[in-house]
Write a structure and sequence with these properties.
heterodimer; A: 219 residues; mainly alpha; globular; B: 420 residues; alpha/beta; Fumarate Reductase Iron-sulfur Protein, Chain B, domain 2; Rossmann fold; 3 domains; 21 helices; 8 strands; 53% helix; 7% strand
């Protein structure tokens, strides 16, 4: 298989398989988790529950008082790489074209120089949070193989994408193929690892807000 | 596998629900919960990271309720939970967790960690891995009536003293009154002034109330240990008595875990709402203050700070009452940085104060340093709180560190300065 054939394969059948596993995986995991349900709380609530779940979905995106000072790297590093990933995935022109081809939806993107800068910042932030995971006693203690593995799978698409655009190390075609392959690996693994928090974070915050809102505590 | 372990695992399987599943899937091992835990912060020991305390529950979840986990278990990739492991976790689930719920306040993905600790205790208790101190308290509550083994004569004695001090005769087992007043054993033994204070305030407000000889204990050791069947038996005593007497309200004493038990867990334990309403004494006092009944003849002059008990404020939702009440009676109330729902636990909630091993007591003393710092940083000599268990634990802390801070109960302080 030459590089052109490799690129054709990752862009064709491999992408279909990866997206297929991703979609079915997400659906399966969501059912597996949320079909467990929960008992109705029969203690009369302090106020009407209202939108306490939804409030918490938003409120938890903001650090609680004093916490940034306690763990600056986690918060700042976390914000930077999450926002960076979102910008790269959804506002880079070639990505928008791919999404348009797959779904028919499209929107304006950012200039490629901006994406370039965002990529470098994101890679930097990810290296910082990795160093923090190695250095911080609590994080190192909690870390399992899955934490290192998912970090790698998240880092590689950004790195290879940036290198492909910059024409670094390998010919563009090869690097692009590697980039797409790394994204496919990420898609396949996402539903079955901690990366699935991208979906469950909303449910978790919602439950937390509901359970505590029932007792009259905004969390 | 031993029969008790099997029971424990079954209990865990039963308490796992969609929130638990969602929480475990959301955890990214960021470790921020450790920064909210007084046991981690004061010891620096990583094993006290709150999410780590749930490891046995997480594994049971993964092995029983996820496809990959079930496969892993079949091919021997993931290890089953053992008795040895649960025994090791006893310290993490009881000694070093007061169910204060501060971790749930900071988790960025929104995991309600304390909600899961409560559930894990169900498996710990039934498999025989709860600490002896809490086992004893639970046994005494079931067999005698309260966690400290007190019987009605002790309460009758406190009633007699309160009658002598106030000149008011106190109803016992009287149907048709407004309130059924509950006490916690700690109040009966250590703070009998609480009842006196209440009698004084209720007389002034014209509120009718009774105590019940078959339901005076408000705390629920069944919940602390994590045995819902026992908790149900204990809470049913109050429910049966209150519904038989036909009271409108049941008054939860200052004690925090009692409030959680009777107000929030009770209806879920018996599977229906009550025929009466449960109110925390501070909610009633705040209502009286707003109505203008709670007038003070003078104020407490010394500067003071407030310790907000976790189960009443952060977890119980009595958020708005404490500050206006303390401001009514104190001339010089100083709000601290981490107050109200952000307050730090005394270190002895969730049944921890009933564990009297050397290690547990040493750990509590260490954890208390966070409270000590709060007091020292505020530069006051007086702290006010509204939970009998907090009071005992804090006074132990004062003794341990030879601090000469005075600790006052809010209801008593209000009664003391109440207009005649």
């Amino acid at each position: 298989m030459n590089e052109m054939q490799f690129l054709t394969w990752v862009r064709g059948p491999a992408l279909d398989i990866a997206i297929g596993i991703f979609l079915l995986g997400v659906l399966w995991r969501l059912i597996e988790i949320y079909s467990l349900g929960r008992k109705v709380d029969v203690a009369p609530g302090r106020h009407r529950d209202g939108a306490s779940g939804l409030h918490t979905v938003f409120r938890r995106s903001v650090p609680p008082p004093g916490m940034v000072k306690r763990s600056p790297v986690t918060y700042i590093g976390g914000y930077v790489f999450h926002i960076g990933l979102a910008i790269i995935v959804f506002l880079f022109e070639p990505h928008i074209i791919l999404i348009r081809d797959l779904t028919g939806l499209s929107w304006p993107g950012l200039p490629s120089q901006v994406i370039d800068l965002v990529s470098v910042i994101t890679l930097g932030a990810m290296l910082v949070v990795l160093a923090d995971r190695i250095k911080s006693p609590v994080k190192r203690y909690l870390s399992t193989f899955s934490d290192w593995f998912t970090w790698t799978l998240t880092f590689l698409p950004v790195l290879t994408g940036w290198m492909a655009v910059q024409h670094l190390l390998l010919p563009y075609t090869t690097m692009l193929a590697l980039h797409i392959l790394s994204v496919e690996l990420l898609l396949i693994v996402l539903p079955f690892t901690k990366l699935f928090h991208a979906f469950t974070v909303f449910g978790s915050r919602w439950y937390l807000g509901k359970i505590n809102g029932h007792r009259g505590v905004p969390v | 596998m031993s029969a008790s372990l099997q029971k424990g695992i079954n209990a865990l399987k039963e308490v796992i629900d969609a929130p638990v599943a969602s929480y475990f899937n959301s955890c990214v091992h960021c470790g921020l919960c450790a920064e909210a835990c007084l046991f981690y912060l004061e010891t620096g020991d990583v094993k006290y990271t709150p999410i780590h305390k749930l490891e046995p529950l997480r594994r049971v979840y993964e092995q029983e309720y996820t496809l990959l986990g079930r496969l892993g278990k079949m091919v021997g990739l993931s290890k089953a939970v053992t008795d040895d492991e649960l025994e090791e976790w006893k310290e993490l689930v009881y000694d070093s967790c007061t169910m204060c719920g501060r971790c749930s306040m900071v988790c960025p993905v929104g995991n309600d960690i304390v909600y899961m600790v409560r559930k894990l205790r169900e498996g710990m208790a039934v498999s025989g891995h709860a600490p002896d101190g809490i086992k004893g308290a639970t046994k005494r509550t079931v067999e005698i009536g309260g966690p400290m083994g007190l019987k009605w004569p002790a309460v009758a004695n406190v009633i007699k003293k309160a009658e002598a001090a106030t000149g008011v005769s106190i109803n016992v087992d009287k149907p048709g009154v407004d309130y059924l007043v509950l006490l916690s054993s700690m109040e009966i033994v250590n703070y009998p002034e609480y009842l006196e204070a209440l009698v004084k305030i209720f007389k002034k407000a014209g509120i009718s109330f009774t105590l019940a000889s078959d339901a005076f204990e408000a705390t629920n050791a069944g919940i602390q240990i994590g045995a819902s069947d026992i908790a149900k038996v204990i809470v049913s005593r109050i429910i049966n008595s209150a519904e038989k007497l036909g009271v409108k309200y049941v008054l939860s004493p200052e004690c925090g875990h009692a409030y959680m038990a009777i107000r929030w867990e009770g209806p879920n334990l018996i599977g229906r709402p009550y025929k009466f309403e449960v109110r925390h004494v501070l909610e009633v006092l705040e209502e009286l203050r707003q109505k203008g009944v709670l007038k003070m003849k003078d104020k407490f002059k010394e500067p003071l700070i407030l310790h907000d008990p976790c189960q009443i404020v952060r977890r119980g939702g009595v958020l708005e009452a404490p500050e206006p009440l303390i401001q009514t009676v104190a001339e010089n109330y100083i709000p601290i940085v981490d107050k109200q729902k952000w307050n730090w636990c005394c270190g002895g909630g969730g049944g921890a104060s009933a564990i009297h091993t050397e290690e547990a007591e040493a750990l509590r003393a260490k954890a208390f340093r966070i409270k000590k710092r709060q007091i020292e940083e505020s530069g006051v000599n007086t702290m006010v709180t509204f939970c009998a268990n907090c009071r005992i634990v804090i006074e132990e802390g004062f003794d341990h560190y030879e601090m000469n801070t005075q600790l006052l109960g809010l209801t008593e302080l209000l009664a003391e300065h109440l207009e005649d």
